[in-house]
Amino acid sequence: MKNIEIYTTMFCPFCSRAKSLLKSKGVKYTEIDVTVDAKGRQEMIKRAEGATSVPQIFIQGEHIGDCDFIHKLDASGQLDQILQNT
Predict the structure, then answer these.
(1) CA 58 – CA 83 distance, rounded (Å)
(2) Measured distance CA(23)–CA(36) in Å, rounded
(3) Residue 50: domain span
(4) DSSP for 25-84?
(5) Exposed/middle/buried for 23, CB within 10 Å: 0-12, 13-18, 19+?
(6) CATH no. for residue 45?
(7) 47 neighbors 56 (Cβ within 8 angstroms)
(8) Buried b (16+ CB within 10 A) or exposed e, 59-81
(9) Please, are residues 19 and 5 in contact by the beta-carbon 8 Å criterion?
(10) CB 73 within 8 A of CB 24
(11) How many domains does the chain fold into?
C-alpha cells in the first residue's frame, strides 16, 4: 500500500479539497493535523523544504506539494501515474 501523508489544519478549504481528491482516487492517507502542533508544523516545513502553507502532501516520503500542485498533477494525468507506480 502507498504511504501517503498530508499535513493539514482545521477549517482549511485547500486541505479539504486535496483530501477530497485523494479520496476520489480511492487511496488511503495519513492526516497530520498541525493546527496547534508546533513541532509537527516544524517537521512539515523541514520535510517540505521550507513550504509553510497547508496542505503539504507526501507520497512514499517524496514531497508532492500543495493543493494547487496535486490538482495540476491530476489534470495532467501524472497523479494517477504516481499513485500507481509507488
Answers:
(1) 11
(2) 25
(3) 4-85
(4) TT---EEEE-SS-HHHHHHHHHHTTT--SS-EEEETTEEEE-HHHHHHHHHHTHHHHHHH
(5) exposed
(6) 3.40.30.10
(7) yes
(8) beeebbbbbeebbebbeeeebee
(9) no
(10) no
(11) 1
Structure confidence at residue 1 (pLDDT): 67
Q: What is the pLDDT of residues 25-78, one digit of tens each?
A: 999 999 999 999 999 999 999 999 999 999 999 999 999 999 999 999 999 999
pTM of the model: 0.94
Q: In this structure, which amino acid lies at residue 26?
A: G
Beta-bridged to residue 32, according to DSSP, are: 7
**Cell 493546527 appears where?**
35
